[in-house]
Every structure is written in C-alpha cells, then in structure tokens.
Amino acid sequence: xxxxxxxxxxxxxxxxxxxxxxxxxxxxxxxxxxxxxxxxxxxxxxxxxxxxxxxxxxxxxxxxxxxxxxxxxxxxxxxxxxxxxxxxxxxxxxxxxxxxxxxxxxxxxxxxxxxxxxxxxxxxxxxxxxxxxxxxxxxxxxxxxxxxxxxxxxxxxxxxxxxxxxxxxxxxxxxxxxxxxxxxxxxxxxxxxxxxxxxxxxxxxxxxxxxxxxxxxxxxxxxxxxxxxxxxxxxxxxxxxxxxxxxxxxxxxxxxxxxxxxxxxxxxxxxxxxxxxxxxxxxxxxxxxxxxxxxxxxxxxxxxxxxxxxxxxxxxxxxxxxxxxxxx
Length: 328
Known about the structure:
Blueprint: H1 2-28, H2 34-43, H3 51-61, H4 68-80, H5 94-129, H6 134-148, H7 151-165, H8 184-222, H9 225-232, H10 237-248, H11 250-259, H12 261-266, H13 269-275, H14 280-289, H15 293-321
Helix pairs in contact: 1-15, 2-3, 5-6, 5-8, 5-15, 6-8, 7-8, 7-13, 11-15, 13-14
C-alpha cells in the first residue's frame, strides 16, 4: 500500500505540473486583462501617459512581457518559495483573500454535502428495494428534477417564492441590515438565515445524481446470486439489504464521495454569485472576470490538487470498504 500511495503521489505531481501549465496558459489568454484595464484607467487621467506607454510599463511590472512558458516557470519558482503575490482584483495578498473566503464556502459545502448524503443514499436504497412501485417512481421523478434543474433557475425560483413573495429571507448577502445591533447569538442566527436558500439550492441540484447512482448500483447488487442465497437461508430482509447488499454498493458510492472533496473547498461559483455570498466561489468568479491572474492561478491549482487528492483517497478507501480489494 505504501508503494502504491508513493507511486500515485509521484504521478499526481507530474499531472499537476502539466495541469498548472494549461491553467496558466488559459489565464494569459483571457479576453479580460487587468493590465489593460489598469492601463486604460491611468491613461484617462489628466496629463498622463498614453495607453500604449502604460501597457508597456505595467506589462514589465507584472512579468507579462515574456512568453507563456517563461512566465509559467517564473510563477512556478515563486510558488515553490511560497510566494503567490498580491491579488490584482482585491489588492491584498492572495493567501489572505483565500483564507478570508474559503472557510465560509467550506461550511456551506460541508452542510450541503451532509444533507445530500443522508437524503440521497437512503432514498436511493428505498427506490431500489421498491422497484417499479409508486415510491420508486416518485423518488425517480425527484432525482431527475434535481439533475435537470439548472442552478440559476432553481436559485431564482427560491428567491422569487421565499424572498420576494413570502419575505422570509433576504435576496442577497450574508448579513442583514441590523447585523451590528444584534447579540453574538443573533449575529450567528442572522448568518444562518442567509445561508438557508443557498444550501437548499446546493442540496437539491446535487442529490439527484447520487440518488440515481445509489438506486442503480443497489438494483445490480440485489439481483446477484449471493443475495438470493442469503434470502434462501432465511435472513431477514433488513439484514439482507443493509448488511449484505448495501456494503457492496459502497465502492461506486465512495468514488463519487471522494470526488466531492474539491467542492468542499472550491465553493459554489454560480450559487454564491446569485445569492451574493462572499465565499471562495464568488471571489474566484470576480477575479476571473477582472483578469486577476495571481488569485485565479492559485485557486485553480489548489482545486486541481484537491481533485488529485480526492481520487487518491477514493482509491485507498476501496480496500477499507471492501476486503476483497487489495493492492499487491
């Protein structure tokens, strides 16, 4: 197992090197450029230099005068020294902005992931055990609706009903107007109130896929020979389903759950933007729109690292979930 993990880590480093290069190349080719916007802004000031002169000066200042390859290796060298620079969009160090926004997104992601698992997996099992019944059809319709609904449409629908029509929640933001006048507990409840609709959006649009995946794998296991043998031995249906069948559906489910690690820290770009939640997803969106290469590069490479780490964790958990899976 140690050799396997070490081998996978080395492979991940190589993959990360090329992924980071592709990300950097894409960032350099963005149609929106912070350097151009800043040069245009400075050139419009009275008595200032021309746009071309400012472009030349700012390009040299931000190491954008070289090729993409040379610029990438300069960025790589800075990364190894732990220097990620200042965010052009937020005018603070990249790590500071990341630390200020990532934990809010993590709380949202963890809560939505928790509810997604405790809702989707049991419903998927129930749908499989009651195949072609009204319960199965109802759960399948709910799952397909969750898969099919675009995030922006469902979020807008929730805001229309619960914010505009009923007035239960604010349309945007993380805190209310009278936040500063509230007690500590009141401030906590105010933030929780503003996170209800974003979390509901994340849960509904995410649980459909896990629900259908659980149902499909559970049906495949329930038709296996050893399940028929367990039933023939007189075991209770509850023990057959939850002790024998469900355990053998965990491997494909672990694959999905392992892939959710990046989403816990990467935030929900569309949801956070629609609800005005100042998380890492919203910050990354604003940075990309503004052509903020330092912050966008750090965030996307961080997400790539989490993706590779999630895949490695999923592979290792295979052996934990199923004793038949062993790596020689």
